[in-house]
Amino acid sequence: MTPRAGALPSLVLLGVPGTAFAHSPIDGINDFYNGLLHPLFVPAHALLLVALGLYFGQRDLRESRGALSAFLAAAAAGLLLSSTAGIPSLETLQLAAAVVVGLLVALHVPLPPAGRAALAALGGMAVALDSGPETLVGMPRALALIGTGVGMGLLLLYTMGIADYLGKKSWLRIGVRVAGSWISASAVMVIALSLSGHVS
Amino acid sequence: MMRPVRPTLALFGMLFATVVFAHEGDGIAGGFASGFLHPILGWDHVAAMVAVGLWGAFLGSPAIWLLPIVFPLVMAVGGALGVAGVPFPAVETGIAASALILGLMVAVAARPPLWVAAVLVALFALFHGHAHGTELPAAANALAYSLGFVIATGLLHVCGILFGALVHWPSGRVAVRAAGGTIALAGLGFLTGVL
Fold first, then answer.
1. Which residue in chain B has the smallest CA separation from A91?
2. pLDDT tens per residue across span A39-57
3. Which residues 149-188 on chain B approach chain A with CB closer than 8 angstroms?
4. Are A157 and A147 a contacting pair, CB within 8 Å?
5. Cβ separation of A181 and B28 shorter than 8 Å?
6. Which of A34, A54, B52, B87 is buried most, with the most CB atoms less than 10 Å from its CB?
7. A106 touching B (Cβ < 8 Å)
8. Whole-angstrom Cα distance, residue B77 to residue B186?
9. What ipTM, to 2 d.p.?
10. Average pLDDT, whole number, for chain B?
11. What's the pLDDT tens digit per position in A2-20?
12. Which one, of B74, B52, B130, B66, lies nearest residue A188 by Cα?
């Protein structure tokens, strides 16, 4: 077919465009994606998960296997329990945990294996309990919760990987510690703002 | 024929320009932007932050990482005090003095014990933090604002550290000390009201 002959069918096709569906038409996938992105869109959650990721990434990754398992188990339990009515806002707890973990990163404080596991479990539970979608029930809710669990895990793992990678050079290790101090400083400010009633 | 028409059309179009809201003062993005710009738009903040980085680089390890860690942490405490309405004496004077003192430390190549340097930096961090805390925009997202000014502060430290890396060369040491002297002069200007 010559270019000129192909132009006519193209012009005809241009005259009958249909709606483009950029996202998959599979039912429920939007709830999953919303859940996946949820940890990123709640600043207190992201702060705590990033702080945890930096802490575990600073250390030998093999030492963190137990802590990772504890995190996953606690996150799963927290997500299941998030549908329980009457759970108060955990933002202050999350921010307080971010202060502590940020300090641990900044000061490069080692913890025993039980301490690391407890830290990971506390962080996972605190974020997961606070992540239940209030307006969803049934399968959409389940998909959103699964997405949130995956999102939490990915954020933690990616941050761990970045911290581990940056740990290869001494000056980059300093950068990780500085980032920890930034997290603590920000969380302190927000706690102060919350207590004084300034938080929006 | 087209060449003179295009600029004419463009100029004509400019007559119908409407107001463009490039930033929002509220929400997460606006809060972060407000917080990020707050230290950067204050020359007294910039001078002192860069001086912390310069001095840390000058003192070498562990001060090079300890000072940029101590500063934001204590600054947050100062910020919390500011938010809580705890009065702080002469905040602006303290901020101006921080540029003067820290600049002088670099200019005269002062090498006090690490704890003295850390305490001095922490003291001035309280003043800076208090100023940031009391000037939080009402509509800003608190965490985003806090992250913004903490990150901006840290990046200013990094600027000082990067310039301070010149101390590895003899002429670089002169340049760094001269930079400290400039900052000290600026601090004097802030204190006296000349700047």
1. B143
2. 888 888 999 999 999 999 9
3. 150-151, 154, 157
4. no
5. no
6. B52
7. yes
8. 26
9. 0.71
10. 81
11. 555 555 555 555 555 444 4
12. B74
